[in-house]
Amino acid sequence: MSQSTIESTLTEARLFPPSDDFVATAKQNSDTTAKLFQHARADNIQFWSEQAKQHLDWHQPFTTTLNDSHPPYYRWFSDGQFNVSYNCIDRHLESHADKTAIIFEGEPGDTRRLSYRALHQQVNRFA
Fold this sequence. Notes:
This protein is α+β, with helices and mostly antiparallel strands and 127 residues long. The chain has a domain at 83-127. 40% of the residues lie in helices and 12% in strands. The chain contains six helices and four strands. It has helices at residues 20-25, 30-42, 44-55, 84-88, 93-96, 116-126; strands at residues 66-67, 75-76, 100-105, 111-115. The strands form two sheets. The protein has a two-stranded antiparallel sheet. Strands 3-4 form a two-stranded antiparallel ribbon. Helix 2 packs across helix 3. The relative contact order is 0.07. The model has no long low-confidence stretch (mean pLDDT 93).
């Protein structure tokens, strides 16, 4: 059996660094990213438990972070319950209702921005 290789003629070496203004207002920087990475490597179960508790609103909090009793069918937060729509949209309405939640870019020139309020209205209309 012969092995053939695909040669790539396109090599992308350009870098697109963020602007200084963007970096100054970002919630994440290289130091916080490095700390998160080290914490995740040191104890990934504890890391994801903390992330889920800190960044998601749970209807029924989980007590088990990872159920690995039936490999390869691993289940994360299996005894917890949360509403994805609420976590992605509803909880942001009070403080970010008029901020952009989604930017859709279709064909060139076809750009649409939806605020959290407009997205919430659309989701409720379809629900």
